[in-house]
Amino acid sequence: MKELLSQVNSPEDIKGFNYEQLENLAQEIRDEIIINLSETGGHLASSLGVVELTLALHTVLDSPQDKIVWDVGHQSYAHKMITGRKEEFKTLRQLDGLSGFPKRSESEHDHLNVGHSSTSISAALGMASARDLQGQDQTIAAVIGDGALTAGMSFEALNHAGHSGKDLLVVLNDNEMSISENVGAMSNYLSKIRSNPYLHQVEKDVGKILNKIPAFGNQITKTAARLKNSLKFLVIPGILFEEMGFTYLGPIDGHNVKATIETIENAKNIEGPVLLHTITTKGKGYKIAEDNPSKYHGVSPFNIRTGKKKKTRDKPTYTNIYSQQLTELAKEDEGIVAISAAMEKVVGDFKDEFPDRFYDVGIAEQHAVTFASGLALQGMKPFVTIYSTFLQRAYDQLVHDVCLQKAPVKLALDRAGIVGKDGETHQGVMDFSYLRHMPNMTVMAPKDENELKAMVKTAAEYDEGPIAFRYPRGEIIGVEEEGRVDTLEIGTAELLREGKDGLILAVGSMVPRALQAAQELADAGIDLTIVNSRFVKPLDEELITKLVKEHDYLFTAEEHLLQGGFGSAVAELIVDNNLDINVKRIALPDKFIEHGSQDDLLARYGLDVDGIKKQVKAVISNQ
Ligand SMILES: Cc1ncc(C[n+]2csc(CCOP(=O)(O)OP(=O)(O)O)c2C)c(N)n1
Ligand SMILES: CC(=O)[C@@H](O)[C@H](O)COP(=O)(O)O
Ligand SMILES: [Mg+2]
């Protein structure tokens, strides 16, 4: 362990360090992050960018009494290391190891479980309001990136905080990057502040100049006021935040430990909400990541010298298949447009092929959905492509702006099911339940990459209302490619295997596993019928009812939580039709699913082939 880092077991231990020691400690922490992540993978570039800022915050504030609330939390590795977790850092994102995000159960220095973006200012303002009601004296700081600032929630919180006048420190970590380049008008505004050093020099004199502008006489007063305002907008950095009720400090170099510490000390003594604008470099200190921060935002294990992945993929991913199919269809169909929320990679080359038909709206899932509704109501075919977990944000927009309008919006839910190492906040295991109860919604899940292509085509051609399909994170199965892609008839399932001892209705990623389990159980004398449901809504009532009548045991299988999912839909069908059968639902339990590799988690929760076999055997052999 490094010389200085070995002395640090809690933030208290850095308080006696001088500036030079803090700079050296920053270097040691960086090395440690790089070495560890080269083995575990994780969010590299974002964490490297805030090492000095983290040390500065912990030097000035007294954590955990003072609270630092990290936005998204993917940049919190230095924070983890100096808050007593450096020894466990090598277990980052592994099964039963440290979480990749702040987590309240992990440390008293983590005040909010995060992973989804743009929650920090709201939560910090809530904490500040509680502090005041309880008569306590604490500094509450939210640390938010320029990407996270693009989300509606951040603006809602700034709006509230500025008006409330509460003591609150918002540290804006501006590295000009979201996962890819940051987008939007706010991002342009920050660029203007950043790129005009002249503004900073005149900043102090501006107040004096403005005060000399006379303010009398009706018309003159109005003109003078307007002039005064335009001048302010021209020359005072951060005037937007000032006008919202914040004291704006900065921009400062967030890698300069001394300047950052001094400014945070100042900020602590200012009454009311303060926005401290720091400029940092994403990937700082690791040249390869600095040169390509987008690629090194999140990494799998890599070679430190070359930056290359240790293990390359054998097969394409579901994301590749989806985006290729969408791009292919868009060549023939000019109505197709694609929307992403700050994750342009989800649509692959679509952006380059059709720059005018691609919209990256920033971290704004709610807006993305209602924006898509507008496009659809005007005759376009919008494919809103968002991770399953992040679409949770847009629940009411789906209900009110899409389903209620019967708008033919197409929802492509990437990273559905168990996503693995990002853990609780990122598992895509609630989408069947949050989508299937919405009137007018159709919900599909493909058993393999060929069926995914068919679903993209089905969605493109379906114009009766909204339609959603969800597909997993990671590599495709690798089935033989089908030349021709046909559309699917809505609400039709596929009978894959016939047996007499039990019926498995499976959906999505569980279909090939159920088939494999059935083949292996056949050797043990259990003969199963397997159905690929394809649709979670509407279900193939006719086929399911017929098969249920022919079997004594029914199993449903899905990579989703039990509550409200596919199995629940089938159970409703059985009750509604007075059918009589023993039912066992194979799904994830009613809890937040932790981090770990996808395979480890599938095995832990009995959703792999062995798990299916065990659960089927347990029911059938016990009778
Ligand atoms: C609601 C939501 N949408 C999308 C994401 C995916 N995401 C994680 S980090 C990130 C970019 C954040 O950029 P910024 O806040 O500037 O942090 P940086 O990585 O630049 O330090 C995005 C889009 C998310 N975590 N939450
Ligand atoms: C922090 C965050 O939300 C993203 O960086 C996310 O971790 C990306 O996940 P994938 O690696 O599955 O694209
Ligand atoms: Mg950023």
From TrEMBL:
Alphabetical list of InterPro entries matching this protein: Dxylulose-5-P_synthase, THDP-binding, Transketo_C/PFOR_II, Transketolase-like_Pyr-bd, Transketolase_C
Residues annotated as binding thiamine diphosphate: H74, G115, H116, S117, G147, A148, N175, Y286, E365
Residue sites binding Mg(2+) per the record: D146, N175
Family per similarity comment: Belongs to the transketolase family. DXPS subfamily.
Cofactor names: thiamine diphosphate; Mg(2+)
MF terms (GO), sorted A to Z: 1-deoxy-D-xylulose-5-phosphate synthase activity; magnesium ion binding; thiamine pyrophosphate binding
Gene Ontology annotations for the cellular component aspect, listed alphabetically: cytosol
Gene3D superfamilies: 3.40.50.920, 3.40.50.970
Cofactor mode of binding and number, as noted: Binds 1 thiamine pyrophosphate per subunit. Binds 1 Mg(2+) ion per subunit.
EC number: 2.2.1.7
Subunit structure: Homodimer.
Taxonomic superkingdom: Bacteria
NCBIfam families: dxs, PRK05444.2-2
SMART domains: Transket_pyr
Pathway(s) served: Metabolic intermediate biosynthesis; 1-deoxy-D-xylulose 5-phosphate biosynthesis; 1-deoxy-D-xylulose 5-phosphate from D-glyceraldehyde 3-phosphate and pyruvate: step 1/1
The protein's enzyme class: transferase
HAMAP family: DXP_synth
Keyword Iron-sulfur: no
Pfam families tied to this protein: DXP_synthase_N, Transket_pyr, Transketolase_C
Catalytic reaction(s) noted: D-glyceraldehyde 3-phosphate + pyruvate + H(+) = 1-deoxy-D-xylulose 5-phosphate + CO2
GO biological process per UniProt: isopentenyl diphosphate biosynthetic process, methylerythritol 4-phosphate pathway; terpenoid biosynthetic process; thiamine biosynthetic process
Role: Catalyzes the acyloin condensation reaction between C atoms 2 and 3 of pyruvate and glyceraldehyde 3-phosphate to yield 1-deoxy-D-xylulose-5-phosphate (DXP).
Protein name (database record): 1-deoxy-D-xylulose-5-phosphate synthase
Keyword annotations: Isoprene biosynthesis, Magnesium, Metal-binding, Thiamine biosynthesis, Thiamine pyrophosphate, Transferase
Location of the Transketolase-like pyrimidine-binding domain: 316-479
